[in-house]
Design goal:
The protein has 683 residues and is mainly β. It has two domains: 329 residues, 6 Propeller (Neuraminidase); 324 residues, TolB, C-terminal domain (Neuraminidase, 6 Propeller), CATH 2.120.10.30. The strands form 13 sheets. It has a five-stranded mixed sheet with strand order 1-22-21-20-19, with no helix packed on it. β38 and β39 form a beta hairpin. The chain is elongated.
Amino acid sequence: MREFIVAATCALVVAGPAVAAPTIDVAPLAETTPNAENDGNDVAFWLHPGDPARSLVLGTAGTAGLELFSLDGKRIGAFRGVEPDLVAVSYGFALGGTVDTAGLVVVGDRASGGLVALAIDPATLAVSRVSREPMAVHGEIAGLCTYRSPDTGRQYAFVTVEGSVQQWQLDGVDGAVRGALVRTIPVGVGAGYCAVDARGRALYVAEEKVGIWRFAAEPETDAERKAIDLVAPYGHIAKEVKGLAVYRANDATAYLLAADVKPGRFNVYGLTDDAWLGSFRIEAAQAIDAVGKSEGLAAIAWPLAGSAGGLVAAFDEDNDGASGNIKLASWDQVAAGLGLASASDRDPRKVAPPSVHTVEPRAESVPVENYGDAADDPAIWVHPTDPRLSLVIGTNKKRGLDVYDLAGRRLQSLPDGRMNNVDLREGFMLGGRRVALVAVSNRTTKGISLYRIDPVARRLVDVADGVIATGLSDPYGLCMYRSAKSGETYVFINDNEDTGTMRQWRLVARGDKVRAEAVRTFKVGSLAEGCVADDETGALYVSEEDVALWRYSAEPQGGTARRAVGRIGPGELTADAEGLGLWAGPNGTGYIVLSNQGADNYAVFRREGDNAFVGFFSIVANRALGIDGASETDGLDVTSSPLGPQYPRGLLVVQDGRNIGPNEPQNFKFVSWEDVERALLRP
């Protein structure tokens, strides 16, 4: 279990106070015609899909619209359907079912107070609007950048508004661009310009008089931030920082450029180690004046205008007293002067297919009633006669147990203690009849809580024979097992301590109550929580969070012998490894599903044989249903039983550690196993 991380916690790790570093001068290659109404401040490059020489420099001109310039600085047109203050370009957007290689242009529109999407016709260079309604951000837009996820292929716009960063997902719907707000990240009152390194999955935000922050760009990630640099005397920024841009030279090397306003220079940082590598100024040359106060900044790593390494564009507010304009400089000069890398043959217009298998939830539970790290583990009960009446039982480790229907509505809430993990087994003989028995680790009583399911009322009924004390300091993970050899029903429970102590208890009926007898104790080695037992094969799977997924015998005489199914390490699992579930197919086939919490995804192993690794998948937002994805998952459960047309091949339920759509207490996401099979398991 990873403790819930509050949005925008920060790690202040920077190089320290300003020290000597090279500052070089570069000559401008060209400058644009001055802004028509002296009302601009941002810049972006648009790469022509067929002829790089016809690529454009886009400049925001406020009331004068979006201005289009050739690479030699000539104004070739303006689109006055918006009043833009900021502009960004993204490639690989699917509009009308096909991927557009011409690039999607997004502007922060002063007139509407929102984001507007535009397209440029490669043949005529005419600009058209491709979003029917502005995406209202409800505040003054201070920064804008776009991001295409290399994992999922989804497109996003980041916009800074009133000290926060809003992340919008952009989708092509009925031939138009539509946006949906997926998360908001607090930054600070001076939050402004931003830039994205797509390959590094990183968002950079300038807090003008404080410094530069880095965040993870994927929506289902921590909102933790790291300081890249700070304003003097704590860092290398003279007084305030404005425009940001990312230049990626190759797969391994990228740089962040930042406009350091007071000295009129541009700082360069290596994105491998966040080191300040020096600065450059764009000085006067060839009848072009130097860049004075600069805000908007862009960089492109593609051969253009005679510069093999690409170009840097800076909006010059001063422009020697005239209306502001855009100065263009060669990246080759910057790279040569500071000893940096130049672009390889990576074409920014060409995007790779998504690298991650993804599924979308089909439903979600209502949020739990407590904020913070509260929801933890689910268990699925299949109704014996009508699958539509099946239940999901979820723990709230700050309060108790909740019972949900398949639509995610809460049917029952039991405030019986700090419940952590839950599991159930059918067919337990109690009071002369077979019942579905539910076991829960209770951190308040330091015991095991037991319930039976009333299938008619669809409620839980307490059947524990008093408090079943575990003798553990903090009962943590729990799973159940029914032995095919003996027919006995057992509970495994582990301790929230460093040795990973696990105890096995046999459940015994006493009239209409149940008591427990300890039959086995062993140590996993370090902290462990998630476990699942396979009744048919007699295997017990335990996730030792920072070490491995282990397979033991589930029988009480099983001892300590074990085999690693998957290990924590590069190219394998990512700490913490947590929740476990079993999808049981016929004849011993099926899958073990593991919450690979540190990577915000899920690992699948085969149930049969040596438990061969199958792959990872992620749960991403279902925009059509307004359900966010799932991440930082503690517990999960899965069943192979058909549960109606929504879940014909079974149901996967996962705890969502970051319920961001909208920001609410944690909840549980419901995923059709059919979708997992389609994404990951079918050729």
